[in-house]
Amino acid sequence: MHEEYIKNLFNDCNVGKLLGIEVYDLKEGHAKGRLTILKEHINVFGTVHGGILFTFADHIGGACGNTLGKKSLLVESSIQFMKGVTEGETVFAEAKLTYKGKKIGRIDTKILRENKEIVAVMHMVFYIRSDDHRTKTT
Prior knowledge:
Layout: H1 2-11, H2 14-19, E1 22-27, E2 30-36, H3 50-65, E3 70-81, E4 90-100, E5 104-112, E6 118-132
Antiparallel strand pairs: 1-2, 2-4, 3-6, 4-5, 5-6
């Protein structure tokens, strides 16, 4: 299954593993993930560092973009932070493909608390390469 391959690819990513990001739901044009905020993710003001949330949204959005069967790479992104998050909280990301052209696409990713309160929103533009993903065969 293509989605299972992409999920494993992103869950085995060194950056995702370093931060504790998990992709748990994936289908074409959609991805969901979770991240529990650790002490190491906290900034000097006692809330999660914006770079951690940016990387989380980028990671889940990247998984979403790669569900299309072709390798997809980020071109540009922006993020808006709405609420602070503290150590011990688990946040969830929901990425959705909102536009797909021949070579360029757009993904919008929401980062939410468990109660669905929006913490941040990322908008991504990505490039769709012509080469397919190749699953490993043994």
